[in-house]
Design goal:
Blueprint (H helix, E strand, L loop, with lengths): L7 E5 L4 E5 L3 E6 L7 E3 L10 E6 L5 E6 L6 E7 L2 E8 L7 E20 L10 E6 L2 E6 L2 E7 L4 E3 L2 E9 L3 E10 L10 H17 L8 H13 L1 E2 L4 E2 L22 E2 H13 L3 H14 L10 E2 L10 E2 L13 E2 L10 H15 L6 H17 L18 H17 L4 H24 L23 H4 L8 H14 E2 L2 E2 L17 E2 H13 L3 H12 L11 E3 L4 E3 L5 H18 L10
Antiparallel strand pairs: 1-2, 2-3, 3-4, 3-5, 5-9, 6-7, 7-8, 8-9, 9-14, 9-15, 10-11, 11-12, 12-15, 13-14, 16-17, 18-19, 20-21, 22-23, 24-25, 25-26
Length: 598
């Protein structure tokens, strides 16, 4: 049985990621990439689907965990009746595709047990395991090999690899598990001490570049580190989450694979990086984007693989029972073939902010814009599946139309270098004005008082908060204020927002899900725009209080069950932590100090 979602901590090396629970069980790991078949899949099943547990044998009287400084090196400290010890878990920031676990005695003596269950192909394939020497073993299944190097002797037991070790004060033992292609000679093990020192230094150096943003700087840094860990270093692509099929409703079907690069999520991550001055990461993302979307604009997708792959076919893994029996377990994502108009606006806004933030204009970006915008001009009047990727059929979602307006509004603002550009910019402005008129005419409820989820609908949607956040209308516009009032009235659950009410509007799936955390961050941002600083601060503090003990958030939260839901950790949620902190901090700074406040 996997742990509660909020009980997991993240390990990562900017290529892949692992989740380790409070009790020392590594229940999720994909190698060599975020989207590779898992070698530990107990998160979506049980220990026989692969896991690596390292914990005391004796009853634990007290345990605690933390990241060492501003890093992704996790320290878990255990106290038993006989002593105290700690485990350091990390993935080296190099190309070794390794995961290292170090046990150190702190006081007295503590007996540990190590139980390693190696399974390839999402828990389906039991590998061939053989000892290469007394302290090294190899596990092979098809093209993959895992090599375990340890300072203690291991032995086989029922297709598990196990060891028992006693750690006294001042003693240290280590385990290193690394991935490599099975057809290559076994690579030598790494220097554990150098790997630890290098990893600590690299993460801390990255975090030290983060500016002070007031009392929430620690949360911002942890979210920044989390987003960095979700970046695929070889290409600059940014995954939406490191997991697949963690449910939005326990025992439900809302289980999706988020180990891909959504243009929307990555764009918002880009803005978070730039707002904190991380322009190298922003530039790497822009290069990834321009490579990924190159080609026929009609074939532009809402998401891509880590290197820009387009074939993300969705299928299920029937041998996995799912997290707390939430089925199906999915790999791939059929939403990659959906039409979602909002992505064009988000990308245009990001490219605009990149230029305003100081990134030089890319020679290919203008050419791509000249191809994409005419295509958006042809299709913006058509229905789409929207930001929430509904599977109940396309609609005329108001948020989608607003973001189509953003695409032309931002493009018009950038078209200023030549007379031809300015002429094109005037046309973009005309298209933006046309979209604006239609949304204001057709996007309101039957009485024309507030905006609704889709043309002709009576439903509300938290994405309508973007009407003010994008500048489509001023925040104090009466139509928006009435929309805000309706959103608060109909979508708030225990001070947190649903993205929409799945019980009353059909999205093609069984109703029921948690509150969608990024929507509550948007609400706090709107409060800042309206000058409601106390409300913004209170809501932000409420959201920070949902983070687990190591500062991580999932996609959703169930206020009734008081637990996290959805894939974890979620880029959207950590983007909210960063951007709302910046908005709240700037609003609290005196006007004369706002430039210094960031």
């Amino acid at each position: 049985m996997p742990a509660p979602i909020e009980d997991y901590a993240l390990l990562g090396n900017c290529r892949s990621a692992a989740l380790v629970s409070r009790d020392g069980s590594l229940d999720w790991l994909c190698l060599p990439r975020f989207d590779a078949p898992a070698v530990f899949a107990a998160l979506l099943g049980n220990e026989e689907n692969g896991r690596w547990r390292l914990a005391p044998c004796d009853p634990v009287e007290h345990s605690s965990r933390r990241y060492l400084g501003d890093t992704l090196v996790l320290e878990t400290t255990y106290s038993t009746a006989s002593g105290r010890a700690r485990v350091l878990d990390f993935m080296p920031l190099d190309e070794s595709n390794a995961l290292i676990r170090i046990v150190e005695g702190l006081a007295g003596e503590v007996n540990f047990e190590m139980d390693l269950v190696l399974r390839f192909d999402y828990g389906r394939s039991v590998p061939w395991v053989e000892k290469l020497d007394p302290l090294t073993l190899s596990a092979v299944a098809g093209p993959n090999r895992l090599v375990l190097c340890s300072t203690v002797t291991t032995h086989a037991r029922d297709h598990h690899t196990v060891a028992r070790l006693r750690v006294c004060a001042g003693e240290r033992h280590s385990f290193s598990l690394r991935h490599q292609p099975s057809h290559l000679p076994v690579q030598p093990g790494c220097d554990i001490d150098n790997a630890l020192e290098h990893t600590l230094t690299q993460w801390q150096t990255f975090a030290d570049r983060c500016p002070d943003v007031g009392p929430h700087t620690a949360h911002v840094r942890r979210s920044l580190l989390t987003l960095k860990a979700m970046t695929y270093a070889p290409t600059g692509g940014i995954v939406a989450a490191v997991t697949t099929s963690l449910p939005e409703r326990i025992a439900g079907e809302r289980n999706w694979d988020y180990r891909y690069c959504w243009l929307r999520d990555a764009t918002m991550t880009l803005l978070a990086f730039m707002n904190l001055g991380y322009f190298d990461e922003a530039q790497a993302w822009r290069e990834w984007l321009l490579r990924s979307v190159a080609g026929n604009p009609e074939q532009m997708q809402i998401m891509y693989g880590l290197a820009g792959e387009r074939d993300l076919q969705e299928y299920t893994l029937p041998w996995l029972p799912g997290y707390e029996h939430s089925q199906p377990v999915r790999v791939g994502n059929a939403a990659s073939q959906q039409r979602q108009l909002d992505i064009y606006g988000e990308v245009a806004d990001a490219m605009t902010q990149a230029i305003k933030g100081g990134l030089p204009r890319h020679p290919r970006s203008a050419a791509i814009a000249r191809l994409i915008l005419p295509y958006v001009e042809r299709i913006w009047r058509e229905p789409d599946e929207g930001i929430w990727e509904v599977r109940g059929g396309p609609q005329h979602f108001v948020h989608s139309k607003v973001m189509a307006w953003v695409a032309f509004d931002r493009a018009a603002g950038l078209a200023d270098t030549t007379e031809e550009d300015r002429e094109r910019g005037r046309h973009y402005r005309q298209v933006a004005d046309e979209i604006h008129r239609e949304v204001c005419a057709r996007g309101l409820d039957g009485k024309g008082e507030f905006f609704v989820q889709a043309y002709g609908s009576s439903e509300l949607d938290a994405s309508l908060l973007q009407i003010a956040l994008t500048g489509f209308l001023p925040a104090d516009d009466p139509r928006f204020l009435r929309t805000l009032e309706q959103i608060e009235k109909r979508l708030l659950r225990n001070e947190l927002l649903l993205r929409y009410d799945s019980d009353s509007c059909s999205d093609g799936l069984t109703p029921g899900e948690g509150t969608f955390l990024v929507c509550s961050f948007w609400l706090a941002d709107v409060y800042v725009l309206l000058g409601r600083q106390e409300q913004a601060q209170a809501l932000y503090e409420r959201l920070l209080g949902l983070c687990n003990d190591v500062g991580l958030l999932a996609e959703q939260y169930d206020p009734a069950g008081k637990r996290m839901l959805g894939n974890f950790p979620q880029a959207f949620s950590h983007i909210g932590i960063i951007n709302t902190a910046l908005n709240v901090h700037r609003a609290q700074c005196p006007a004369r100090d706002r430039a210094r406040c960031g």
